[in-house]
Amino acid sequence: MKYFKSYFVIQLKRIKKLLPGIALMILALGVLLGTGAYAVIKDGSYMADQKRYTLGYVGEADNSLLRSGIFLLENEDSSRDMVELKQYDAEEDAKKALRKGDISAYILITDEFMGQIDSLSNGSKLQYYATSGQKGITSVMMDEIAAVAGNVIVYTEKGILSLDQVMEDKEFSDQERILQMTDFFNEYVKAIMARDSMVQIQTVGMSDGLSTPAYYFTTLTLFLLMMIPFCGIWIFLGERDAVARFMAAKGLGPTPQVLAEMLAFYLLNLFGLILVTALLALSESIFKYNLGELIKQEGLSVYMLPLIFLLPCLVFSTMGFFLLDAIQGVVNKVLVTFIIDIFMAYVSGFFYPRVFFPKAVQFGSNFLPSGAALTMLANKQMGARVFEPSFMLWAYSIIFILMTILVRKARVKY
Amino acid sequence: MIQIKNIKKSYGKKQVLKNLTLEAEAGQIIGILGENGSGKSTLLSILAGLQRPDSGYFTIDGKDLLKNSKLRNELVAYVPQENPLIQELTAQDNLRMWYDKETLKKELDKGVLRMLGINQFLNTPVRYMSGGMKKRLTIACAMNSNPKLMLLDEPTAAVDLVCREDIYNYFEQFRSHGGTLIISTHEVQEIELCDQCYILKDGSLKEYKYDGDIPHLIGRL
């Protein structure tokens, strides 16, 4: 360990030389992601994004019952925030729209189904079509549709039949019974559909218990931290194997080499985080907003960010270091690392809430460094337990360090 | 006295070095010749401590250097074929890794660094240096611990004639102070510099007396 300090100082000097280019890249990335996040959060466009599924339905447009049902779904039901409905006369048109991606799924409402509703029976089922790639969305949609259809058909039917029975027992005339039952039916459907007015629905979170702005802010900051190692790619260029062999021959083995390099690299990543924090603080003062208020996290100050993201920064810098160091060739380094980062970010819900992915993917993403980082930050913001995800992040950091040392040992030998 | 005895090294089933033995006196220059892939770099890596042999001994003045890595790092300097310098930094920054401030000044004034002409490009970043400058700087970095043995892997490959001359002069200086050099080479000029030459073939060393007959040498490789 005689030369550890000198080698660490050398790494800091290298970073200092490369810093202007690295800082520019980090700033550009920060501005890009920050602008995107600000635009989404500030103008509330994410609210519109929530209505992201267009559901087609194929059925007779002149059927009054279907028309009133669709009207109620579009205007009264709580699913209206999430689902937009589009009517098709022919199934072929709906299929084409599904293939083009204009709609997420479509429901085939057959004459038989409408006839059974008219006759107050429910022996027929709605036919639901979605592409195979929408398994995650399908489950959400099916739940929603099943709930709506179930409420309308089953409970309405029971209520109306009970009323009919009571009126028959009380010896009302057929005309009077039909009149009362029609009024009752309309009121009943309206009441069931307007579930928003029956209960106070509060949005507790879009994903992982976080409000939408907080969720976007957390995931985009994590994504930025994942990308910062890229900005330091120059550190991993040149004849690194020759340097490693020379250092080892002088008595500085693979382990202290990797530790000194990683420590310097982590400091670079922290610098990136501080730079972005400074940028945020500057934008706060220029555009006169408060980050805590903006992302609906009371008491959050922009200056707390480096502390909050300290551990995720560690895991992403060790992971980035391992990948960029282990992979040979500039093009391979960039391509492989970028693909891995994007995959992990996507699966962990950085771009899109992970609640929309199949259960197995959701479960698996918890065990990725990116997923564990999101869980830890979400739990921290909600005041929940952070031990498990924090432990996982520490464990991943240590694993990445050990794997880098193993790779370095192999390189020094051959 | 440097003794290398019965060194064996295999990669899987392939035996690269078989009972390799070599002795050198202080002040000698030993040349190791051989085709590419004959095991020259493997031998130097073992002596530099980068790889462990399967068996064998390596001693300097009776001290076992395969078991004492700290001593080996002091007594053995290794100059690899590739450039092991930090590209972004200057010669001075690279040297500061190995020399403290005072020693660096002393060596630049009248020591090994002056002899290698490092003063001429002390503040030049490595990336702007010629091949000869880089090689001289690498030797300067390797020599910080006053070693007794210098291992050089093709030291003057891609180095211009003037720099070669400077480097050869330094080798002569080093040996005149009792240092020993083991050079892996393909260069005739370096072979002529050597007191003893060995050809590494089929995992064993065979002594070879070079008399300027290059076709004969090629036939032996």
What's the arrangement of secondary structure elements?
The complex is a heterodimer of chains A (414) and B (221).
Chain A: H1 4-42, H2 45-50, E1 53-58, H3 64-75, E2 83-88, H4 91-100, E3 105-108, H5 111-118, E4 127-130, H6 135-169, H7 174-193, H8 195-198, H9 212-231, H10 240-249, H11 254-287, H12 291-294, H13 305-308, H14 310-326, H15 330-347, H16 359-365, H17 369-382, H18 387-413
Parallel strand pairs in A: 1-2, 1-3
Antiparallel strand pairs in A: 3-4
Helix pairs in contact in A: 1-9, 1-11, 6-7, 9-14, 9-15, 9-17, 10-18, 11-14, 11-18, 14-15, 14-18, 17-18
Chain B: E1 2-11, E2 14-24, E3 29-33, H1 40-48, E4 55-60, E5 63-64, H2 69-75, E6 76-79, H3 91-96, H4 101-110, H5 112-115, H6 131-142, E7 149-153, H7 161-176, E8 180-184, H8 188-193, E9 196-201, E10 204-208, H9 214-220
Strand percentage of chain A: under 5%
CATH topology of chain B: Rossmann fold
Look at the structure and name the CATH superfamily of chain B: P-loop containing nucleotide triphosphate hydrolases
Task: Characterize the overall form of chain A.
Answer: elongated
Shape verdict of chain B: globular
Structural class of chain A: mainly alpha
Order of helices and strands of chain B: EEEHEEHEHHHHEHEHEEH
Structural class of chain B, by secondary structure, is alpha/beta
Query: What percent strand of chain B?
Result: 25-35%
**Helix tally of chain B?**
9
In the CATH hierarchy, what is the class of chain B?
A: Alpha Beta
> What multimeric state do the chains show?
heterodimer
The unreliable regions of chain A are 195-205
What is the average of the pLDDT values of chain B? Answer: 88
- Lateral strand order in the biggest sheet of chain B: 6-7-8-3-9-10
Overall tally of structural domains of chain A: 2
SS elements, strand count of chain B: 10
**Proportion of residues in helical segments of chain B:** 25-40%
Helix content of chain A: 55-70%
> Main interface pair?
A-B, 23 and 27 residues
Q: List low-confidence stretches of chain B.
A: none
